[in-house]
Description:
Layout: H1 3-13, H2 25-43, H3 47-63, H4 71-80, H5 84-95, H6 103-198, H7 202-233, H8 236-246, E1 252-257, H9 264-284, E2 290-296, E3 300-307, H10 320-331, E4 335-340, E5 344-351
Helix pairs in contact: 1-2, 1-6, 2-3, 2-4, 3-4, 3-5, 4-5, 4-6, 6-7, 8-9, 9-10
Amino acid sequence: MTGIPSMLCLWLYGFFWLCFFPLRTAFILGTFLSLTLGAASLFLKSRNLYLACSVIFSGISWFFPSFAAWAPLILYGTFRRRFFLPAIMACLTLALHPELRQPEILFFLLFGAGLASLLAFLDRNLETVTGKYQNLRDDLQERNLLLKEKNKTLLEKQDYEIYTATLQERNRIAREIHDNVGHMLTRAILLTGAVRAVSRDPAIQNSLENLEATLSQAMGNIRQSVHDLHDEAVSLEEALRELVRDFTFCPVSLEYDVGPELPRDVKYGLISIVKEALVNVSRHSNATKVHIILQEHPGFWQLILEDDGTVPGEISSSGIGLAGMKERIHALHGRIEFSKTPGFRIFAAIPKGSDFSSATSKKEEI
């Protein structure tokens, strides 16, 4: 609090009163009373209540002149609260007291009143400047947080755009290889077969067989490369949003919070589970809404799919659809649970860092 040093200074200033009068009981009582009133000025919210306390203290000072030693301390509080007229009237009243008309005492009181007004003015300005500084600091911190949030959003958007551009480029390369190189190799294989059919020379037959085998192997490698490029170019988010758009049985909401780097088998496994779950909703449920949550955590990926439909009887995972979901998740070394909430709820978790090379996830057309 800015007023404590100033009030302490004025309180100590009151002890100069002992230079004019001997130590009396009233002086000691005024010491504690002024200290209490000064401390109250820091905590009292009501301006009128503090003014009433100050007036009472001034009235006591008329009957006990020793209380006037603490008049500067009380005036400091009244000046701080902008009670200028009551403060001036209190000074004039004390100056008219018969025992306080001595020049040195009047000088003591007037100098103390001037010091109190100066300290009150300085402390009030200091509070104003401090308040402006704190507001400015808070505004700067808020703007810094907003800028950090915007930068984070821009970086995420930039990463997503780069990822999308990468997927588009992979699709383009796959189409180019399939349409150009693949067709040329197919044509070369057919021509080689035709030449083998019309040729009777055994030496040429062996060469043509080797050439046809080489072209067939090259064709197989290109098909595998095109297939891999297509698999890598599939966006999990776009695939799920397309499933949601095409689902017309009831409204579906999707919360997606997964990074772009996702293993291919995990990607196709999640797409297949969501597709199968939506098919089950349309065939076996009377749900009016479906909620899908897909989140990425530090150690695993999490899928939650739930609807508000009724599920008669106990849940059995022996059905073809649910059994297929369990098979896909277990192939990815994860776990899956089915429950009634009272609708139907699917919870699946796939750990990160597992070897998905042996996963037997089935890739379906999206």
